[in-house]
Amino acid sequence: METPSYIKALLIPNGKKPAGRKVWSIDLETVWLPFFTATNVVGDTRIPAEALGAPLRLAYDTDGSVKFSKTGRPITKVVKEIADSVRMVRDNFTAGLLAYANGVITDNAEGYKAQVEVARKAGEPILTKDKENLQQAMLKAMEAAAEAEPEGKVAVAA
Hints:
Layout: H1 5-10, E1 22-23, E2 26-27, H2 28-41, H3 49-53, E3 56-58, E4 76-78, H4 80-107, H5 109-148
Antiparallel strand pairs: 1-2, 3-4
Helix pairs in contact: 4-5
C-alpha cells in the first residue's frame, strides 16, 4: 500500500510559520475561530458573533484602566466565551483519553501491566544516566564556585 500524499505532506518539515495567538497551544485565528464558527453554523455552540468577530480584547485593571505588561505593551486576553469553549474542548479531550486508557486497562489488564513494565525497564538506564550527569554537573558547579571565592571567605546565602 502506498502512503497517500496528504499523509506524506504531514511528515515533511515546512519551515517556521508566522506565530499567531495561541489558545491551549493551538492557533486562535486559523484553527479555533473556523472551528467555533462551524460549530455555531451546525448549532453545536452558540458563541456570540461579537466574540468570534473580536476574539482578542484589551485587559483592564480593576480601576478600568488598560493593563500593560512590564515591557510596556498593552495586555490582550481571549474573550471569555472562546476561552471557556476551548477549556471545555480540552476537558472533554482529556476525559476521552482517560476513558480510552481505562477501557484498555479494563479489557487487557495484563497487557497494559506488561507494557508499563517494559517502559519502566527501558527508561531505567536513562534515568540512572541523567542522575549521574546531574550529580557530576552539580559537583563541577560547586568546585567552580569554591575556586571563585577569595581565600578565607565563605559564601553566605542571602
